[in-house]
Amino acid sequence: MKFTKDWLDVHLKTNKSESQIIQKLNNIGLEVEKVEPVKNELSEFIVARIVKANKHPNADRLKLCDVDIGKKEILKVVCGAPNARDGLLTIYAPPGSVIPKNGMKLEVSKIRGETSYGMLCSESELKLSNESEGIIDLNDKYKTKIGKSYFDEKKGKNVIELSITPNRPDCLGVRGIARDLSASNFGKLKEQRKSKVKKNIKHNLKITIEKNKNQACSIFGSCIIKNIKNTESPGWLKNRILALGLRPISAVVDITNYVMFDLNRPLHAYDLDKIKNKIIIRNSKKGENFKALDNKNYILDKDMCVISDDKGVLGLGGIIGGERSGTEKHTKNILLESAYFDPAIIRKTAKKLDLNSDAKFRFERGVDPQSVNAGLDSAVELILEICGGEVSKFDIQQTKKIKDLEIKFDPKMVSKTVGNNINTNEIKKTLSNLGFTVKTKGKFLNVKVPSWRPDIFGEIDLVEEVIRIIGFEKIKSIEPEKKRTKPTLNFFQKHFHLAQRSVASKGYLETITWSFTDEKINNKFKEKLESVKIINPISSDLNVLRNSLYPNLIFYLEKNLNRGFGDQALFEIGPTFTGKKPGQQITVVCGIKKQSIDEDNYLKKNSLVDVFHIKKDLVQSLTELGINKEYFKIGENTPSYYHPGISGSIVSKDGNFVLAYFGALHPKIISNTFGFEIFLEKLVDYKAKNTKTKESLTFSDYQKSDRDFAFLVNKDSRAQDLLEVIQKIDKDLIKEIKIFDVYEGENIPSDKKSIALKVTIQSDHKTLNENDLTNISKKIVSTVEEKTGAKLRS
Amino acid sequence: MSDFEKKILEFKNRLNSTQDSNEIESIRTDIFSKNGFINSQFKKLGSLSENEKKTFASNINKAKQELLEIFRAKATEVSDKDLKEKIKKEKIDVTLPEKEFKIGKIHPVSQVIDEISCIFSEIGFSVEEGPDVENDYNNFTALNTPEDHPAKDMHDTFYLDENMKTLLRTHTSPVQVRTMLKGKPPFKIIAPGRTYRSDSDQTHTPMFHQLEGLHIDKNINMGHLKGCLNYFIKEFFEVDKIKMRFRPSHFPFTEPSAEVDIGYRIEKNKIIIGEGDKWLEVLGCGMVHPNVLKNCKVDPKIYQGFAFGIGIDRLAMLKYGINDLRSFFECDYRWLNYYGFDPLDVPTNYRGLSK
């Protein structure tokens, strides 16, 4: 919503300055978004200097001037004026500007083979005088103004732009803003002038609001004005229209726009002579169409509110008028409409047609239904004044009674809500100044809500009105109490926090990527999950919710590779989606690591990333999260996006929970890259169900002995199975098993490999003698050979 | 001089004249080993008379003691000398690079969430969460934003179905609804999380982060709201004084509603928070609308309280001087390294928020 201080003065008698007003508006909830110098239609004409007036190569009477307009570049402008000369200070009109004298819009054009960027103006062209002999010759004073607007400088007026929240349609009119200011002790709201116009002629157009289901129109007021001269608007009106950022069109259109911004009262003017027989306000039939004033053709759905005549649709009620009945410069007789339309229905229609207009913006927020007459009065007065003509009596068709809302208001609620004591008289005064009618009834107030405030429903809304005007700065701040009755984080949140920092501490950089991704990439990772599509994605490559964290991580990893960063470790902790219902999401920690192979770097040669690096990072993090090796085993099944031979899963000992995956990513997706995924909910769930309270520490001081074994096993057998068998032999004596060598090759059958282990044996009760050790060693060999088919390597 | 004494003298000379560790070892064997000189002398004792035995044994022991002392001194001397020479040769250029290490980083958004949680933890708020995918009811209707109301236009919503019933939450406020529906008052929670609006330009990203706050109890009023936010902003920016302004505004789910601006000034291209005459909008807040309480099965006649919503990314930008919101989500290696936080740098109450 835009306005100027002088426009505000039409409604408000105040001695406050513009800057005081701006501050106050912010304080009462009418946020000032911008304050800008006012633009008028002459702003584009700027002071310029002819640097050199060259002869036009192809025409004797023309000159090709080098013109300085205060920018870096010197422009070429063709000029026919005899007084164009080197050093002349004059006024320049850029391409796109409209010459006031003839309404011609300038374009970059070729004049006798030479391109001219704009025009140098005479006084008559700018309507400054009738002098058309040569271009304007400014005196030396203007030397410092080159590049500045010729007309603007003297005025120094501002346009104030407010960002009005959707609950305050009344402030989409200057009068509403004035009312709020006056209620805040910033002046007196002026009475609206009573119209003294004589309504002599007959309103002879039949107007009917059809009884339809969900009829959006409940009031249709109108009058006929005959024998007008639809001229150009006078300067003051043009300037107000320009201040709104609109272009002046003709007096009638400008006046309807003016009233809309003045009173938040949209109006529409029809060319009466183009209306066939009568006006019917009705619901549309499917497929009806019309050409609107924005020059577009609209095909309507069923049940949209249209204004029609015997020929068909004239316009969409409350949204936009039609071209067929639009007013023109030569229009003589008009029908002026001032109506009320239902906000929700207007909004629905406009949304369906993807149509926006100032009228729609207002009706969907709520126009004062009682402003029908005032709107007509205000516009009629201006039209008669500017265009002449005679006006008819107003015809008001109304199908619904307007009910005033009355609220029983306990004034104590103000103090209870804001915390300070606010006295009842101040509450009453504030509400009255805002246009509420307040009557005291015992302890309560009976508050009648003015018809221009569709946002007020109940007591709490009145509380807001009062405190908004009294000022939030009056509320006394109460220091918070430093008391905690509940833990800040729950069990899961603690693990989220820990997992995040644990993974980062392994050298991974935390990223945050979109929760959505490219369906094409996501498909490689979704496995059995359904794609969750976004109906209206921001772009086609962010069109599904991610089923995995890998698609985005890999995308950004590759971007960084292109930036020249070979070695990278990235991770993200966040949601992936398993369905489209709320709650169908899980929390995943996903790390990804890539190392560029750099054979020349001797310092690095021996530390190339392999699957055991990523496994180390993962297992260490799991251990830090409280799930150590005791609690899990390695499984073989991994999703298809991992290299099938170089990947594994971390499964709970009971086999019920898949806690994580790790491995090389499938070379078809990305080469030489390793990653892991931890499924946090499962991990936390498993931990909660399986945590033992920590027993007090006991350890044995009896002598430890190590025994080494090398077993020959099948190449595809797994070390884990071997360890499991040994562990089970004697849980009391076998304290630790370490694999220290795995060997394939010479001296070993080609389908076998040798696994060498060191077993630490210790008793909690005695020092073991040679005999004990031999026994347990024998048992280890025999059990392993029996259960796994391995052979002790001799 | 007896043979015995000659032999001892010979050993002494050998020890004195050597500087070689191998020779030392061979002398040790010659004197002290099983078949060495000392043992061979003891063996002779058997063939001697009682008297001679006594004297000779005492001589052997004396000699052994004497030789041992000299030997030890010499052995130490030689090994010290050897070590010295070895060390001399062991010069390494330690200016060569150390073994490679990688320092991981925590994203500034995560860090700021931890900082905020830490601050609110002090005054008794606990952390709640809700799903990213929401239904229309929790995101709008329960929050007093009716169907077909222009207030919905303020949120450019991503929808997951044609009927526009399932969507990506446009704010963290639905967590209010979920929290109240599943529990009983009082409520005192914060809810950080991802939020989504189909908006993408210089200052908007389709995904961003919000933190919701909710405090409902008997008699919680706007004074509490003001005090709470004032405390938060001061703690967050780690300044003693903060200039704050509450501006009336409108959100369907709070009434009265306010936007909060903080004062700042620009000095050498840097934003200085807390002083100056410029205003910066940092959050929205208000008293929870009675309709919202009713929708959440909380009796507005007994309970009331406040809610607020904070843009986490924006606060992170302000506190840590990050200029471009979009850079948060671009995962640029250099950016993550530069703006990220050390994982050991956990914000705590006793150590302080930032290092």
Explain this structure:
The complex is a heterodimer of chains A (794) and B (355). Chain A is an alpha+beta fold. Chain A folds into 6 domains: 2-40 and 156-189, Phenylalanyl-tRNA Synthetase, Chain B, domain 1 (2-Layer Sandwich), CATH 3.30.56; 46-154, Nucleic acid-binding proteins (OB fold (Dihydrolipoamide Acetyltransferase, E2P), Beta Barrel), CATH 2.40.50; 199-398, Phenylalanyl-trna Synthetase, Chain B, domain 3 (Phenylalanyl-tRNA Synthetase, Chain B, domain 3), CATH 3.50.40.10; 406-470, 2-Layer Sandwich (Phenylalanyl-tRNA Synthetase, Chain B, domain 1), CATH 3.30.56.10; 491-690, BirA Bifunctional Protein, domain 2; 705-792, 2-Layer Sandwich (Alpha-Beta Plaits). Helix content of chain A is 25%, strand content 28%. In chain A, a hairpin with an 8-residue loop joins strand 42 (734-743) and strand 43. In chain A, helix 1 crosses helix 3 (174-183) and helix 5 packs antiparallel against helix 8. Chain B is α+β, with helices and mostly antiparallel strands and 355 residues long. Chain B has 2 domains: 3-89; 108-339, Bira Bifunctional Protein, Domain 2 (BirA Bifunctional Protein, domain 2), CATH 3.30.930. In chain B, the strands form 2 sheets. In chain B, strands 1, 4, 5, 6, 7, 8, 9 and 10 form an 8-stranded mixed sheet that branches. A two-stranded antiparallel sheet of chain B has the order 2-3. In chain B, a hairpin with a 2-residue loop joins strand 7 and strand 8. The longest helix of chain B has 40 residues, at 50-89. The interface between A and B is large, with 95 and 90 residues.
